[in-house]
Amino acid sequence: MVTEVTLQELLEKEEQLTKNAKESRELSAKLVKACSCISKMANSGDKIKIITDYDADGICSAYIMQHIIEGLNSDADLEVICNDRRGSYGVPKDLKKEDGCKYIICDMGSNEIDYILDTFGNDTVVFDHHLIENDDDLYLFKTASSLLNPKALEKDGKYADYCATGLAFRAYRCLEHIPNLNFVHDEKTDNTIMAIACIGTIGDMVDLMDENSYNRKIVKEGLNVINNATNDNFDYVVGNFLSQCGLQEGIDIYAADISFKVVPVINAGGRTSDDIKQNGAQLVYNAISQKDALAASWNINDCISFNQMRKERVKEMQEAPEYEEAILASKDNDNGLLLYCLKENTPTAYAGLIAGKLADETGKAVLAVTYNSDKGCYVGSGRNSSNNKTSLKEFVDMLATNIDGFEYGGHNEAIGISKLTKEAYIELENAIKEHGNEMERVENRTVLKISPSDILSNDTLEKLKRLEPTGNGWKIPPIEFKGREVYRNKLFIAKNPKWKKVKIDIDGNKNYALITDWNYTQENYPRFSDSNTIKVLADIAVNSYSSSNGVVEEIKLTARHDEAFQQEYLKEIEIDSVNKAEKEHTL
Fold first, then answer.
1. How many CB atoms lie within 10 A of CB 442?
2. How far is it, in rounded angstroms, from Cα 45 to Cα 66?
3. What is the pTM of this model?
4. CA 337 to mean position of chain CA atoms
5. How large is the C-alpha radius of gyration of the chain?
6. Confidence of residue 492 (pLDDT cuts 50, 70, 90)
7. Rounded Cα–Cα distance for residues 535 and 451 (Å)
């Protein structure tokens, strides 16, 4: 079943959300208590260590937390440590408590509270947002002032869908308004923190349409700050970093720009740690938090090179014969979950990337694992598909009920696998074969209702700009339309055979749309009986760039691969073929 929605209806929904979105009283109260704990810690005279995860959310949340401590006590002895995923999934087990040292942990730890308190002390502060899997940890998050996770405050199935960065930012804002508290900050710091909060929120793909948080407001205000940044009102090092990532001065920056240009560079450090033989996430953090602008420039260049290295490794993995075989094999069964094995000793950090890309290409949830010879087991990550109605975490819980040697955790739609023995791998593989088709698929698809002549109009462009931010956390429904294919761009074949641009006359009046397809296969575009007409499902967004004629803003269309759409497409082709044969037979 297909449900249609207009841009005007989406604008009205966004306006309503902007008016109604707010935190629960319980969460606001918990934030104030957590801020009190952080304030006491900052002024205790002890050294403070912030331990954080290695991705964009972890790095951005630690950046904000560092500035919270510095704002409370500029003389604090502070150190930030980024988790190196070569070691362990979760809180690093090689870190031991130092005498006279207090700890803040960001973006991890929700299921290791006993270990954290025993190892680092009962006054340890934890800011996390991952699923809480046992009642003891849930109770502690509800009652302890120093432990904060919005999921512990769930009420009627609702909670604030903040990431760790969002929580750290809310703490920063709370400190600004707590009376009799000496919290030193200025406009330049406030603006930079706002931008960092925006980047981390986009990077962790939380729900930007969540009514129980200020996620949408954080991203909108952050984009506004970035678009109006100057040397006088914004940190030079962070500004230089954003520029090196490809954000151009004088061109409006949108959520998609942050998602595709900035977040991958931040994440690349952690992804490439095995390649560079050191903690890349730490190097990225040091680069953006550096006080010396000249030194930071050299470090930022390293960050850009890490991202290029990441791209090359992912491209290599996508070009492996096993990758294409997995895509083809997935079409022969109705399972909603795919288990994919990477080459032995592939850096674990790449598993999530490959799982996400395979999920996009197959329309199924994917568990991507690699055998780690040092650990003597498989490790990896899982990503759900938007085609699945069932939560990935809940489904894996069901499959793993009687499987020993399988350890994992994470979000509803994304999990990290820290241990999967060889025996457990075989059991999991068999369980997927037997029960994979029980994963409930999405029955209703929502598409954007828009006339072909309006797809590339200025009115549509203006409405899209008003709907920003869309980002990864909330995308506008795709457009579904038929058109006469003019050509498929051959220029990109040599660079990347999976990247093509398909040009279509969308209304028969020579109004041409260029659709970028990052996961192109010829089979995805069967033609109707007239040999030129094809059907397309495409995401719509704003594209902004600089040209010889100045700044250009236009509509950008990107192909979206959706299993339900593809099946309907093939049925239409089959009916069309039958009708053509009957017509020819009659003649």
1. 17
2. 16
3. 0.92
4. 20
5. 25
6. very low
7. 15
